[in-house]
Amino acid sequence: MYLVVVNAAGKQRYIFSSRKRQEIVGASDLIARVNGEWAAEALRDVFNGYRDDWRLRQGHEAELLTAGAGAVTLLVVDPAAGRRLVTALTTRALEEAPGLDVCGVVHELRPGGEAGTLAAGLRAARTALAATQEARPGPQARFLRLPLMEECGSSGQPATELRREGPGERPSPRSAASMAKLAHFPAALDRLARDAGSDVPTMRKIVDRLGLEAEWVSIVHADGNGFGRIFRDLGTTTGAGNSGSGNQELGEPESAGPGDEAYADLLRGLSRAVDRCALTAFRAALRRTADEHPDRTIAGVPLVLPLVLGGDDLTVLCEGEVALGFTRHYLEAFERATADDPDLLPVLRAKGLPNLGAAAGVAIVKRNYPFRFAYDLAEELITKEAKQDRDVGSALAFAVLLESSAPDLDRIRRSVTIAGPGGAAPHRSPYVVGVGCEDPRTEGRRWADLERRVAVLTGAHAASGEALVPRAAVHDLREAVSLGADVARARLGLLRTRYREDEDRLDALNDLCGDLAGQDAAGFLDALAAQPFLTTARTAATSRDDAEPATVLEARSR
User: Fold this and answer.
1) What is the dihedral of CA 286, 289, 290, 294, to 10 degrees?
2) Could you tell me which residues are beta bridge partners of residue 73?
3) Digit-coded pLDDT (tens) for 286-326
4) Residue 499 to residues 470, 492, 525: CA-CA distances in angstroms?
5) pTM of the full structure
6) pLDDT tens string 91-107
7) How far apart are CA 274 and CA 344, in angstroms?
8) 292-307 burial, b for 16+ CB within 10 Å, e for fewer?
9) Is the dihedral of CA 125, 130, 131, 135 positive or negative?
10) Residue 17 neighbours by CB distance under 10 Å
């Protein structure tokens, strides 16, 4: 028995290497085709009559384990057939997706001992795949610049042809990768429409709005908490019950682990369940975002483009004003969906978890800012901040970029200082959402804390209708934070003296900045950054019971 593992590496780099929205959307479709249409056609060509329900134990030649996010894993009996499958997929990627790094390996499972189990074989195959990818030239080596060639205006790669952007415009040089991405833009719109429960004309309008009209846009990247460990632990967990049901009870870890057949069923069921939960959560987040921001929708669909939606990974391009709310709704909906999925219940019970969680990074930038830098920032926000709370639940970290240079999260955080003895980080990120808010360790860093502070900044006085905290006062407090704890306390004291007979304003000051020192000052600065991008007013549609299960959006008619 042999394992075949094929993967598209550098997916985010491939998607965001272009500055053009249409190319970005087209690139996401090409990646989805690796594990979708291309894999299905290659399987049917190599294994005549192949169907998804094939199992090796039933005498078939191949058995698909996982397929998602540009990766395919399957078992085969004949290694030559596995090599033909790898050849078919990599050749198609070279022809139809120039610049996409698709690589595959065929790994033998040698029976006998723990090292011969399917779980151990998967680890070895993935290690071999990584080594193979590192040992061969990367995709950039395919685009030589000698003899001298003109540079593509979109990707920076050597141009292969001239293309006219629009009526009346001069032709501009474009690379093979750019042309391939553009060619797949219509098909990508169809996929996006299916994911969003919408239609192609609506998705095209959303692309145009984000590319031509939006002042702020955001890259949102979300990643599951501890999913790699969960998948690895399947190999050291005993399956009980019918191995073909996909709903086995998981017992205590044993060195031998489950049999290969049970492990394959567990792996396949878990992979499909996570895909299903991610899609359900995405659609639920779209619905709630549309309810919150009806003025930022097209045909009822919020300005959100799902570029990567597979497994525990989510990457979307959206309008800045909806980014924080959408991300919060997605994380909460993902927790609810995983808590209710029947294929995940055995895993959750074995781990003693009520649900699975995720971490998200939200990078909010100007429309023309290079997306590859924005994605790097979103990824940093996950690894350096949002993942730090993975033991308590789902969390999101955000940054609003006001500069034009390449971002560095450490430098961005240091650029806003809180003066005074002891000091503190100039932010309270990450903010915990969902069930993790019940943990006392998250006090002051819950989503409700950020909303409460922003509500003060945007709130109006009940009697006068003026701002609860005047803009000039907010500016003075912001300046005082960087001048030192004594100055901050003094200015805050003056404001409290001024409003000593106004209970509403005194309560607002307490909610907004506490004593304006340490973590209270950091929360105040976060609220200032989030204010333009966070709607705190609740409508009837968005104040539903949080326990409501995530539901799938109905497809909207044109």
Assistant:
1) -160
2) 5, 66
3) 999 999 999 999 999 999 999 999 888 899 999 999 999 99
4) 12, 11, 22
5) 0.87
6) 999 999 999 999 999 99
7) 8
8) bbeebbbeebbbbbbb
9) positive
10) 23
